[in-house]
Amino acid sequence: MKIGFDVISDLNLDAEDEFDWDGKATSLYLIIAGNISNDLRVVHQTLFHLSRFYQGVFYIAGSSEHDSMHFVKHRHGELNKLCRTIKNVAYLHKHVVIINGIAILGCNGWYVNKIEMELDSELEKLHLHAQHLEDIQYLGLSLEKLQLHLDVKKILVVTHSAPSPELFFGEQPHNITEYFALKDALLSDTEFKVSHWVYGSYDKNVDTTIDNINYINNSCFGKEPYWPKRIDIEI
């Protein structure tokens, strides 16, 4: 049996932008790997609109949704409440969804985001690094728990940030070399359940397989026309 997911990210919408997804859905489920908008009203409107075309929408916030590194946890709380007002939308921050044997595990990652965000102080940089390490730890611990979960046959990881330097394909910015790669969390995938890793924040389309894991990026960044990328996971 195959389960299909549409993949999008980095819409970067403003209140004035027109966004219409009518006729574009190719799957029952949608993965959003961050950066819908920096305006929470636009985030809500966009998620509500997308929920009309899918049985399930699974979303993790990018850097656009966070206006300050000092209030990351507070914003996660706001986004979680916002998503709960839309019946078939799930916010993936510290929340694993399991569908037909596929576990969907997500976090921001705070890796490539150092380039996306203007950090005003060393304190904000420290906050960013702390969130990055917290997300790696969360991924690793969650993967460890899912290894023995009898209902989980495959794992789909979703991060806003790129999983590792190699997925910048030679364009890795020099100012994030001190960060641990999110991909290091795969050391906890001892049963090799991770089959796909969807990410955003990178402005090139990616569909590549490394060590039997399919890495997918389908970021918008103003592309016209823009369509979802469909992935199929076989159970």
Give the helix/strand class.
Answer: alpha/beta
Q: Specify Rg, calculated over alpha carbons.
A: 16 Å
Question: Taking strands numbered 1, 2, ... along the chain, how are they ordered across the largest sheet?
Answer: 5-6-7-8-10-9
CATH architecture verdict: 4-Layer Sandwich
Hey, roughly how much beta strand do the residues contain? Answer: 15-25%
Name of the CATH superfamily: Metallo-dependent phosphatases
Measured distance between first and last alpha carbons: 5 Å
CATH topology: Purple Acid Phosphatase, chain A, domain 2
DSSP helix count? 4
Biggest β-sheet strands, sense, barrel: 6 strands, mixed
3D shape: globular
The CATH class is Alpha Beta
Low-confidence stretches: none
Helix content: 10-25%
Q: How many domain regions?
A: 1
Number of strands: 11
Mean pLDDT across the residues is: 90
- Give the H and E element order: EEHEHEEEHHEEEEE
List the helices and strands and how they pair.
Elements: E1 2-8, E2 29-32, H1 40-51, E3 56-59, H2 72-84, E4 89-91, E5 97-99, E6 102-107, H3 113-116, H4 122-147, E7 154-159, E8 194-199, E9 206-210, E10 213-217, E11 229-234
Structure description:
The structure is a single chain. The protein is an alpha/beta fold. The protein has one domain: Purple Acid Phosphatase, chain A, domain 2, CATH 3.60.21. It contains 4 helices and 11 strands. The strands form 2 sheets. A 6-stranded mixed beta sheet has the order 5-6-7-8-10-9, covered by helices on one side. A 5-stranded mixed beta sheet has the order 4-3-2-1-11. Strand 2, helix 1 and strand 3 form a beta-alpha-beta unit. It is globular and about 45 Å long. The protein starts with a strand and ends with a strand.
